[in-house]
Amino acid sequence: MKKIAVLPGDGIGPEIMAEAVKVLNALDLPLTLEWADVGGKAYETSGHPLPPATLKLAQEADAVLFGAVGDWKYDKLERSLRPEQAILGLRKALGLFANLRPAICYEQLTHASSLKPELVAGLDILIIRELTGDIYFGQPRGRRTAVDGHFPGADEAFDTMRYSRPEIERITHVAFQAARKRNKRLTSVDKANVLETSQLWKDVVTEVHASYPDVELDHMYVDNAAMQLVKAPKKFDVVVTGNMFGDILSDEAAMLTGSIGMLPSASLDANNKGLYEPSHGSAPDIAGKGIANPLATILSAAMMLKFSLNLPEAAARIEAAVQSVLAEGLRTADIWSEGTSKVSTVEMGDAVVKAITTTKTIKS
Ligand SMILES: NC(=O)C1=CN([C@@H]2O[C@H](COP(=O)(O)OP(=O)(O)OC[C@H]3O[C@@H](n4cnc5c(N)ncnc54)[C@H](O)[C@@H]3O)[C@@H](O)[C@H]2O)C=CC1
Ligand SMILES: CC(C)CC(=O)C(=O)O
Ligand SMILES: [Mg+2]
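That is the input. Now the predicted structure with magnesium ion docked in place:
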């Protein structure tokens, strides 16, 4: 029996997690689910966004299924107590340095994308984002009175962007290996024309390329990459980049697929133990309305079955069920278009479960 830590979190987190859990239960797998509070919810109940009991559960589990954390009402809290520190803390504590964000435009959603259908039809790119380094974790950071710069004496804030060679090497190996299993093209995204961290990034990626001569490598500056993603997204196969650039580019890529509610993710350590979460946040603007798209979370559960639990057939059943409900014309509000049927979060989850159980009945 494998143990899954289920951490729904805040905002739409509990709504989308309920649907993902429903789908996992429908598969009748040897899994034990254990729930814990995280983010703002945990702050309310225990005074910390990542309480020791939640961290212990995540560390002991075979995999973590995570909803989302955050709410505007916590914006004035000191940073270490804000809900977002929970996901950052989990990534760091579990060593989840490799974040895989597949941006796939399902055939049925070609018209839901913000781009022209011909630009996104058949789109299948994989963004690999380094997840435990960069400016999100770099020290020192803080507030001080400026002693130099344009305004000496002014209130000033600073963060530190940093990367070490081994950090870049390990994510680069993950990216080349992923590209090898796909179309053998890797784009490394940086800002080496300005940033020293990016120059090291580019040098290391180029060096590691020597071990993967069968994969075609190109380098692109992040501003150009942001532009190319909306100009000709299908030119990309695998993209590897740092934590902040990957955070931004993956939200951009989400819209190529129709909605950020479609983009799952896997965050892996060196042994493929992982945390699985949608690429979006807690969406406080739509929380409690029953309209959030649960598919990114459901597809994240499929990634969990594939990468951490060695249950690829079960994962494939979820993916097939998602395609089948989309083919039926069912759409949550974010991907709805004329001629399709608008459904709620719960109805979408129910439809995926029905598609799974129907397939099971036909097979048995
Ligand atoms: N991993 C995590 O837990 C993350 C947490 N956050 C936190 O989430 C909170 C909200 O951040 P935002 O910048 O608004 O980003 P967001 O991703 O939560 O929402 C951005 C927009 O996308 C929509 N959206 C997101 N998920 C959706 C879904 N499943 N179905 C339909 N529409 C969806 C929202 O309604 C909103 O209009 C903040 O506190 C932020 O720090 C943000 C990103 C990741
Ligand atoms: C707390 C943030 C770093 C989370 C986020 O935006 C993400 O991982 O995509
Ligand atoms: Mg993000």
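The domain at 103-130+159-260 is CATH 3.40.718.10 (Isopropylmalate Dehydrogenase).
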